[in-house]
Write a sequence for this structure.
């Protein structure tokens, strides 16, 4: 039972991703958010638990990618598709449906990202390119801003031009050769984890003061910081 526990948690991630897709299709956006929150926690926990129990296995690695493909690949693509449907017109016609399908381009690049990650030995400490959970957090933030109409930005968020641009940028970042900090701790000492702790503190502060804006703003800061650090290190 002990050696199978990380895989069970991974399957919880997958189950929550499937349920999130169902709730999204029924426009239950807040439920979608909480299901993805549980999926994200499961995704974070399975690897950590496998390391603690020393039960890493090739099966667990493959299961993790397959679960992530649903929770952090299919679901964010479906969120973008849903928001595009909202922004393209009051009535859902055949033309609008096809015009919204580019949202799933993010799903394709998430698939490519996950496949590359499994083969890339450089990403044991930090990520190269935006990880799929972070991409999903950004998209979920857009969904929450639309649902709550935060600062009156609901209608702005579903502008097709903005959503197409978001899809393109996130898709590029998923496969970009840009080093980005991983938030998976191997120890909880300050030394070696400075960036992780600073981002966690920033996230808590944003959550207190920015509410629904937190998720999109946090990922934006994370990406901009990573890009700036990348070019500074090159110099």
């Amino acid at each position: 039972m002990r050696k199978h526990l990380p895989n069970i948690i991974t399957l919880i991630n997958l189950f929550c991703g499937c349920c999130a897709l169902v709730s999204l299709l029924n426009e239950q956006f807040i439920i979608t958010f909480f299901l993805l929150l549980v999926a994200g926690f499961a995704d974070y926990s399975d690897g950590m638990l496998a390391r603690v129990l020393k039960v890493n296995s090739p099966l667990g690695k493959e299961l993790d990618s397959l679960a992530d493909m649903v929770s952090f690949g299919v679901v964010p693509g479906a969120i973008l598709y849903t928001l595009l449907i909202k922004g393209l017109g009051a009535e859902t016609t055949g033309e609008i449906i096809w015009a919204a399908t580019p949202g799933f381009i993010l799903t394709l690049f998430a698939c490519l990202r996950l496949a590359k990650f499994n083969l890339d030995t450089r990403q044991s400490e930090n990520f190269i390119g935006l990880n799929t959970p972070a991409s999903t957090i950004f998209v979920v933030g857009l969904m929450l801003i639309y649902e709550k109409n935060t600062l009156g930005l609901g209608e702005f968020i579903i502008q097709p031009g903005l959503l197409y641009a978001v899809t393109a940028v996130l898709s590029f970042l998923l496969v970009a050769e840009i080093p980005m900090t991983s938030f998976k701790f191997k120890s909880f000492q300050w030394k070696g984890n400075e960036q992780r702790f600073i981002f966690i503190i920033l996230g808590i502060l944003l959550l207190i003061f920015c509410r629904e804006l937190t998720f999109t703003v946090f990922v934006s800061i994370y990406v901009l910081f990573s890009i700036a650090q990348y070019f500074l290190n090159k110099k």
The CA atoms of residues 33 and 140 lie 7 Å apart. The mean pLDDT is 89.
